[in-house]
Batch of 2 targets.
Target 1
Amino acid sequence: MMTMMTSTILQLSRTGRRLTLQVERVYGEKVKVIYNVEQTASMANFRTEKDTLGEVQVPADKYYGSQTVRSIKNFPIGVETERMPVISNRAIEILGGKLGTKTPVHPNDHVNKSQSSNDTFPTAMHIAVALEIHNTLVPGLEALQKALANKAKEFENIIKIGRTHLMDAVPLTLGQEFSGYATQLQYGIDRVKDTLPRLYQLALGGTAVGTGLNTRIGFAEKCASKISELTGLPFVTAPNKFEALAAHDSMVEVSGALNTIACSLMKIGNDIRLLGSGPRCGLAEIILPENEPGSSIMPGKVNPTQCEAITMVAAQVMGNHVAVTVGGSSGHFELNVFKPQIVSNVLRSIRLIGDSCKAFTDNCVSGIRANEERILKLLNESLMLVTALNPHIGYDKAATIAKTAHKEGTTLKEAALKLGLVSEADFGKFVKPQDMLGPK
């Protein structure tokens, strides 16, 4: 029975994009409509089951039982597919019995032996999230991080003007700028991986309130070992089942790491969008791939849709984290009932980030080109190159040169010579962008 249970939990966690714990309205409405159609077809196609509230009509060919029927009727935003009756009825069918009879395999006495939804649900949450981190999130992040690092190397000798407060600043290379993005993503990957040790701790064996009532000594450890074997991930039994049932801090921690990644993606997406703005009246320091026509009214216009998409994803993940935070803080005494809300939002965030990073990598970052002519033009026109004169003539005189050049529309060199604050030879010796890229 333990193997059947662990296999079922693993199957639930492997259902990919369908493991949202059925809280989507569209799915709930679909099942509700299907049930109503079936119900009106013929009562002869139904079986009668009993629960603690009375008799319930269940579609004769379905493995689920009375609780799913009641959920369909009472909760239009979702539907519960009971794990116990489904497993029980499938086993009964295999053994040649009749669905709904609860014999020879009883949903509570056999399938749910030594278990409770209070410990199996958080166990499934941890398995699902851990698998999605390994299979979807990390591969997407690593692909984007690698692409950004490759661009940092490709652009390492292209000197451009820096910007702080959206205003001209001292120079750096385009490669240095992209290296910052790559490092942000690497730190994001590290943060997510740092959450895994807590995520690998499973609540199974805590049963109703964390005491392990109705289990046997060693049950929790054996289950964790089997789940680890089935998934290939190092799951262990949680050392404190009271924390594992009543709090979901590990899920909030994962969501927090995802939220930080969303902050990184928002900055990276916006920076790349702004660097590619134009093509003639913006910064236009980089050239973005043209993926599709950008306007229904302006011919030839191309928009930075991949940047816009990933920033929208970032905004959604930030919102999801707020929901997870509220859910994680809503545990009362020995149980947190916000489990569906918490895990569905964490899984959505993981998939949104993983999928959008892949699209952003393939359809944008990998195809970015440097507009070296434009970069050089803006670099030579920048007034902030005057900063290189600070050690030689002082801040105040350097500021006078910059303000004069700006006011009169001249170059720094022309203003410096006019004011007599530096010679032509010294200006050429002191103001070299290639010497302004690091400490001396």
Note: The CA atoms of residues 130 and 403 lie 57 Å apart.
Target 2
Amino acid sequence: MVADLLVLAELFPNGISRYAIGGLFVGLGAAVIYAGTAINAGASTFLESTLSYVSDRSRFARYAGSRDWRLVFTLGIILGAAVYAVVYQDGTWTTDVAAWRLLVGGILVGIGTRVGKGCTSGHGVCGVGSASKTSIAGVLAFLLTAIITAQIVAALGVTP
């Protein structure tokens, strides 16, 4: 038990309370969205649902009924990050990662969410929570890919 606590203290030097509270809010948010809309929360359809405001194409029109909450959901993610930066980081957001790497990473994540028919919030939080076999397989693929990629990148000595 003490050894487990020491490992936790090493992995999370600032404690786990902020992660536990964040997880509670993510779960609560997913439950509220599902209770209010009967649709699993997920951010991967944000672009298509937003385009439904300005396009009549059938690909985008299918999201017209859920686009309002999807917009609020995505804006809430952005606002939450901004509030965190103001409260915990003196209003600044900094990273050691080069801007071009952030851009390329964002593009690859965007492509991956469309190919995988969902994002980690949709599959990981809602899909696994509802015991969806597709989501469980998706999350396992996400994790294995991330672990393998991290090991390769570390072995190559790549830094931000």
Note: The longest helix spans residues 133-156.
